[in-house]
Every structure is written in structure tokens, then in C-alpha cells.
From TrEMBL:
InterPro entries with a match to the protein in the record: AcTrfase_PglD-like, PglD_N, Trans_hexapeptide_repeat, Trimer_LpxA-like_sf
Keyword match Transferase: yes
Active site residues of this protein: H134
Keywords, ordered alphabetically: Transferase
Amino-acid positions noted as binding substrate in the UniProt annotation, renumbered to this chain: G67
Marked site positions, Increases basicity of active site His: D135
Occurrences of domain PglD N-terminal (ranges): 3-78
Species the sequence originates in: Jeotgalibacillus salarius
A Pfam family assignment: PglD_N
GO molecular function: transferase activity
Binding site for acetyl-CoA: H143
Lineage top rank: taxon: Bacteria
Protein name in the entry: Acetyltransferase
Length: 215
């Protein structure tokens, strides 16, 4: 299978490692707007993202290997592909329940666990050692950082980012585009767009953080 990879940053490095374990996959292009022009190296085309529409073929698949949730969503909107076009990368050491649903274009890293009746929507990142327990739902374009734990029945909205080592207790809900700090323990629902940090987690005003950064 020939595959076009979108993204050439740090996240892409890890994705390329996962893909290298499947000898049936041949990466034919790595596209990123950091490349000002097109060039070839070891039978792989490197160039800006707009080249995708020139290189796309019916039998080729694509995977967006971009860690930033907003940028990943923007690129998916630009490509305008059907879900069937996207490849879903799952490391062989990950444990995925047969009853779990994994959306198109998602990447699941080494030693991650997705338990029964969990649902991962499209273009999400389930990073190394993350645990998604039974009956959880993870929205599209979400990133669960290494060693995060979603206990049973947790719901996470689109575009949210859960920091490394954070835990969400059973049945809690995170809204869309929420950020949870590393190591936080979330014991209450978190509304859309909020930042939650600490143990137990509390909300932090993002505007105040911006003011402090300017001081």
C-alpha cells in the first residue's frame, strides 16, 4: 500500500516509526509546508502540502501526522477526503478491544489501551501508554498525551488536549477544545474551551496567563 504522510515534525517521527513496522506500507511522499520546494530522497517525495492533490491516486492512502490539534483539523479540511481515504496507524503493542471503535486517521501509540465499547473519533492521537477505559468517547482531533487515563464513561469533546499523566475520573465530561494540564486529576466536568490544572483540577483563566506572559 502506498501512503502519503502529511507532516514532518516531532509527531511525524513517531508515526513514521509505527509505519515502518508494517512492511506492506510504502511511504511515497512526506508533505509539509516547511518545505519551500519539492525534492526526492530515497524514493520519497518531500514538498509542500498543496502537492497532495497532484500526487493523489485512487489506491493511495493518506495520514495526517501533525501533533497540533488545530492544524490537524485545518489540514483535514483542506484535503477534503472521504474517511475511507485515511489510514489509521496502530502500534502492534497497543491493546484494542474488538468492541472499540477507532475513527479514520487516528494514531494509537505503543502500549496504549482502548477498552470495550470505547469510541475514538477521527484524527485523534492516543499517545504512548494512554488508557481509554470502557464506554469512553473521545472527540475528533483530540490528543491524549502519554500515560493519561480516562476511567470508565468519560466523554471528551472535539479538539481537546489532555496532558501527560492526567487522570479523568469516571463519568466526567470535558467540553470541546479543553486543555488539561500534565498530572491533573479531573473530578468535575470542564466546559468548552477551558484550561484545567492541578490535583484536584481547577479552572485557570487563559487571559490571565497571557497577561503574565507579557510581564
Amino acid at each position: 500500500m502506498e501512503l502519503i504522510l502529511i507532516g514532518y515534525g516531532c509527531h511525524s517521527k513517531v508515526v513514521q516509526d509505527i509505519l515502518s513496522l508494517d512492511k506492506t506500507i510504502k511511504i511515497v511522499a512526506i508533505l509539509d509546508d516547511r518545505f519551500g520546494e519539492c525534492y526526492h530522497l530515497k524514493d520519497i517525495v518531500y514538498g509542500p502540502i498543496f502537492l497532495f492533490h497532484q500526487m493523489d491516486q485512487p489506491d493511495r492512502r493518506v495520514l495526517i501526522a501533525i501533533g497540533d490539534n488545530v492544524r490537524r483539523m485545518q489540514v483535514a479540511a483542506y484535503l477534503k477526503n472521504d474517511a475511507e481515504k485515511y489510514y489509521t496507524a496502530i502500534h502492534p503493542s497497543a491493546v484494542i478491544s474488538p468492541s472499540a471503535e477507532i475513527g479514520a486517521g487516528t494514531v494509537i501509540m505503543p502500549h496504549a489501551v482502548v477498552n470495550p465499547d470505547a469510541r475514538i473519533h477521527s484524527f485523534s492521537i492516543i499517545n504512548s501508554g494512554a488508557i481509554v477505559e470502557h464506554d469512553c468517547e473521545v472527540g475528533a482531533y483530540t490528543h491524549l498525551s502519554p500515560n493519561t487515563t480516562l476511567t470508565g464513561g468519560v466523554k471528551i469533546g472535539e479538539g481537546s488536549h489532555v496532558g501527560a499523566g492526567a487522570t479523568i475520573i469516571p463519568g466526567k465530561m470535558l467540553g470541546k477544545w479543553v486543555t488539561v494540564g500534565a498530572g491533573a486529576v479531573v473530578t468535575k466536568d470542564v466546559p468548552d474551551g477551558q484550561l484545567a490544572v492541578g490535583c484536584p483540577a481547577y479552572l485557570v483563566d487563559r487571559s490571565e496567563l497571557k497577561k503574565e506572559a507579557r510581564l
